[in-house]
Write a structure and sequence with these properties.
Distance between the termini: 40 Å
Radius of gyration: 17 Å
Order of helices and strands: HEEEHEHEHEHEHHEEEH
Oligomer: single chain
Structural class: alpha/beta
Number of helices: 8
Shape: globular
Strand content: 15-25%
């Protein structure tokens, strides 16, 4: 059953990536994870870009129509930047560059990672939330695969993460990004629950948002900024 679910998830992933090529893109949501010069472990290393690579990437992004993610439905030919998990190296290495370039960004914060070694603190989160360029979104409480949650567990994770973040920053949290984010990891039964709690939710289907969009607003695509992406700039 697990292999079948993985196979079906992969097929859905590839289907939407390829079908999106038929339609003109409305915009692209980009995703960062780790920004720094320190070598990470095997799991996170493929998602790391160096500080200098980040600087060059932001120079390129500055030349585009870069928007606040929550405004994507009103925009055309846009780019929006998101950051998952929010490691501490983002705070030290990328956050100053984003402020310098005046580029808006969305932090998808996992509540369980706050104050953990290698990740931002609650104080750093509150500080960044006050920046006019920053939007805070949720990345869940447990950072687990939604496909493995019961209906009750999934809904609780969505609601609890929203509530905790709103209490911390004193602002509404309307955006959500699924941990891991693939069709396989999000599951077929639980994805729609994000639309009951948040205005928009995002996965990791690596394609533009097209109009008309083939994806639901509770599972919108995002493109990872990795070495392959940077080599195309």
């Amino acid at each position: 059953m697990k292999l079948l679910r993985r196979f079906m998830g992969k097929c859905c992933h590839l289907f939407h990536i390829n079908v999106s090529k038929i339609f003109a893109p409305q915009g692209r949501v980009l995703m960062l994870h780790w920004v720094g010069d320190e070598i990470q472990d095997e799991e996170t290393e493929p998602y790391r870009i160096s500080t200098e690579q980040c600087r060059r990437f932001l120079v390129w992004l500055k030349s585009k129509n870069t928007i606040r993610l929550e405004n994507w439905e009103r925009e055309k030919d846009f780019y929006a930047l998101t950051i998952d998990d929010v490691p501490e190296n983002f705070y030290h290495n990328a956050y100053p560059l984003l402020k310098e370039a005046s580029i808006p960004f969305t932090l998808f914060v996992n509540v369980s990672l706050l104050n953990k070694d290698g990740f931002i603190t609650k104080e750093q989160l509150v500080e960044m939330s006050k920046c006019e360029l920053c939007t805070i979104g949720s990345h869940g409480v447990s950072h687990g695969e939604f496909a493995l949650f019961s209906w009750e567990q999934a809904l609780r994770d969505l609601k609890d993460s929203k509530c905790e973040l709103e209490q911390m920053i004193g602002k509404p949290v309307e955006l959500f990004a699924f941990p891991y984010g693939s069709y396989y990891a999000c599951g077929y039964a639980n994805k729609h629950l994000a639309g009951d709690v948040y205005k928009y939710a995002f996965g990791t289907v690596a394609c533009p948002i097209t109009k008309p969009s083939l994806l639901k607003i509770y599972y919108l695509p995002r493109i990872n900024v990795d070495m392959e992406f940077l080599n195309l700039l």
